[in-house]
Amino acid sequence: QFHGYDELPQLDDDGYSAEEKKRISQVLKAQGRSTGEFALTNQPDTLMLYYLLTPKEVYHILGTQLGYDIQENEVEFLRKNFAYYCQRTSHMQALSFTILAKVGQMCWRQDYVWDWFMEAMKTDLFNREDNTHLGVHLGHMAATLDIVLSTFVGLKRGEDQDDQSVTIQPALPRSWNKVKYKWLMHGSWYSFSVTKKKVRISLEATETLSDRAGHICVGGNKLVLSPWSTVIVKYHKLSTMKEFYEVMDKTKFIRQSIVNCYIDESVTPAIQIQIDALRHALVALEKVPVTEAGLRQVALDRKKRINLDLTYEIEELKKDLCFLTEGDQGLYSQKMRPAIPDFDALVAQGKEFLGGEDCWFQNFITDRDGTINNYCGRYKSSIQSAYNSIWLSLFCTECCRNPVILTAAPLQGMIEVSVNPDNTIVYAASKGREFLDLEGRYQTAPMEPHQKQLMKSLNLRLKELTSKAPYDKFALIGSGLQFKFGQSGLSRQDVTGSIATQESEDVLKAVRTIVEEVSPEGGLLVHDTGLDIEVMPRLSEESQEESATFHKGKGLEFLDGRLGLDVARGPNLVCGDTSSDIPMLEAAMAMCPSGTYGIFVTTDKQLVGRVTAVCPRMLIVPSPDVLVAILNEVAKAKLKGQHRLDSFNSDPGPGGYMTTHCPSPPAGSHHGKRSPSFLSGVFSPLPSSATL
User: Fold this and answer.
1) Average confidence (pLDDT) over 628-634
2) What pLDDT score was predicted for residue 648?
3) Is the dihedral angle over the CA atoms 227, 228, 229, 232 positive or is it negative?
4) Of 12-21, 401-410, 683-692, highest mean pLDDT
5) Where does the Glycoside hydrolase family 65 central catalytic domain start and stop, copy by copy (predicted)?
6) What is the 3-state composition of the chain as percent helix, strand, coil, each rounded to the nearest 5?
7) Closest to 574 measured CA to CA, from 592, 561, 549, 548
8) What pLDDT shows up at residue 28?
């Protein structure tokens, strides 16, 4: 779009009828206005880039060739642009719906894809634009056929020019049972029959057998067919590490769309499409072969298979499906009470500790993994569950002014595994030295410009290195590829020794070569732990000591100054689960000794003693599920109850519990965004009769 487009006001179309919206350009013209006065386009021109190029190609052009500093990965970047332009498109052009249908499938918005496909089909059949008598929209009609093949059948060619392979990843609409078609590929005619469980492929006729002919890949199976032969493949199969992460990435965006529907109080029967998609993901994970030790086994590459503990991924999907069909009470009774002794008593205790319906905090500062999110064996697949996000988001919008997740993980990694609604929580990563504020602005601690440029160049080269074989596997093991503030890392081995020694040494050598090329004058240091390769700028002795001693407490102080959290004002709620979280508790206590409260998730008696010594107003719970359930129940009580204006009493009651309630929120807070009807939308199960 043109410069200044994002500063234009968004058109409020609530006052227009459905017919007027379809011809909004003419309606505005009759009113003496034009679409140019608003952030409004006739068709999603920017998103058309993704129709023509892959997300990886768009990301490479913007980030590498044009030099834009993009914090998200390519799919998250696509999702944000998709959401932005969907709200600002009037669909005055026929191709608008086909573009959105195809791009919507790329970020797994199945709830949108079918509706837009049907709208596209109506263009000439229903004479939507009142011009079919002049001729049909032939290019648009071809685009609808492309949606059938590329989106519903999932027919995709290799991304590289030399890659002649074809992949089929079906995602048939709920009302379709089968798609049959013929395809001319490499001089040969193939016949395809695609159902929801299997793909039948026949090589019917061969005109020329090209030397460059590639294979067909279905469900992780690479097929090369002989003339007049037929192969049937079941495609709900997950066999490689790469496919595993692809499935988990899909669940991230599916969960994100579900959360947005619940938070926006727009739960409709169409959400059943997303629930079905989560069920398919669960089936795929449960079908991964199991070893005698109870681990799941997948292929890392053509030679090596590795074992995975998928407990987190499978159990969180089961919890989500339970929540989405049975509501929060169903999740409590079926999943949490059986697994957590005294669950109800712990939640009631926590609800009392936080003040019940009068709970209010100036700042909610929490760690992520092990605190508000259950632990996972791999950070890259620790996708936040939908129920967790809904409960957490409700607490953040109703019971606190400044919600902050403060972790040691890299910011990009945290964004990639979180499904919370945009602009709801401050994401503070690298112990607080980089963060996204509530307006989505990226900010960091100070760094020398030449060092920042060195790290940017290094990160681009590391991305390029791990995008292709044989080094792509190193982004899939251990910590993978991580870009923290002032430090980049790449795993070269995992704790189970999945990588051959020579291959591990080869990637270390490749990284050292990149470092020498990026900074021949020695401005970057390489530290090898044996498992991970860490690269960071060469600092002065004073700066190096400061960086080595930087902890979450200093991170909180930095955030307080940069974001104006006003920690000294209080009240503050600090949550953590390990000794690395104690510094942020100490920092909050130093700034607000009488108004800081803590909840720690631990069963370690020594840690309990340490945190209660720092903060006497402390509650100990045994698991993250208990903590988020407490936050859920407090937020629900807040919505149901009347806000009190009592003064905040900082003195703890018996057992360290809060004896009086928090005051009503000050002006300018998040509070008040939800209506009481939100409770029935979020916490009641989806009607069992819901269908498309």
Assistant:
1) 97
2) 37
3) positive
4) 401-410
5) 1-145
6) 45, 15, 40
7) 592
8) 80
Which residues are registered as beta bridge partners of 444? 434
Spell out the residues 6+ positions from residue 134 whose beta carbon is closer than 8 angstroms to its own: none
- Rounded CA-CA distance 383/247 in Å is 11
Distance CA 288, CA 294 (A): 11
CA 501 to each of CA 476, 481, 504, 511: distance values in angstroms, whole numbers, following the listed order: 17, 19, 5, 16
Spatial separation of the C-alpha atoms in residues 324 and 683, rounded to whole Å: 9
Sign (positive/negative) of CA torsion 634, 637, 639, 645? negative
Compute φ and ψ for 363, nearest 5 degrees. -135, 135
Give the burial string for 463-489 (b: 16+ CB within 10 Å, else e).
bebbeeeebebbbbbbbbbbbbbbbbb
| Half-sphere exposure in the Cβ direction for 75 (13 Å, CA) | 20
Query: Taking the domain 450-539, which CATH number applies?
Result: 3.30.70.3080
21 within 8 A of 74, measured Cβ to Cβ: no
Could you give the CA distance from residue 315 to residue 284 in angstroms, rounded to a whole number?
A: 13
For the segment 651-660, the average pLDDT, to the nearest whole number, is 34
**More confident: 113 or 532:** 532
Which residues of 356-399 form beta strands (DSSP E)? 361-366
Structure tokens that stand for 402 in this block: 């400044």
CATH classification number, 244-433+551-683, choose in 3.40.50.1000, 3.30.300.20, 3.40.50.300, 3.10.20.30 = 3.40.50.1000
The per-residue pLDDT for 417 is 94
Q: State which fold the 158-234 domain adopts.
A: Maltose phosphorylase, domain 3 (2.60.420)
Q: Spell out the residues 6+ positions from residue 495 whose beta carbon is closer than 8 angstroms to its own.
A: 478, 531
Tell me the mean pLDDT in the region 246-258: 90
Where are the chain's structural domains?
41-153, 158-234, 244-433+551-683, 450-539
Largest pairwise CA distance in the chain: 86
pLDDT, average across residues 633-654 = 60
In angstroms, what CA-CA distances link 278 with 108, 254, 392, 393? 11, 7, 20, 21
DSSP state of 249: H
Which tokens belong to 549?
């001693």
Alpha helices in 404-448 (DSSP H): 411-417
Q: Are 360 and 662 in contact (CB under 8 A)?
A: yes
- Return the pLDDT at 211: 47
Tokens in use for 461?
Answer: 């080269």
Encode pLDDT of 186-219 as tens digits.
777 888 898 887 888 888 766 554 544 567 777 6
pLDDT score for 642: 46
* Token pair belonging to 15: 């006052």
Find, among 205, 195, 232, 237, the residue nearest to 216 by Cα.
232
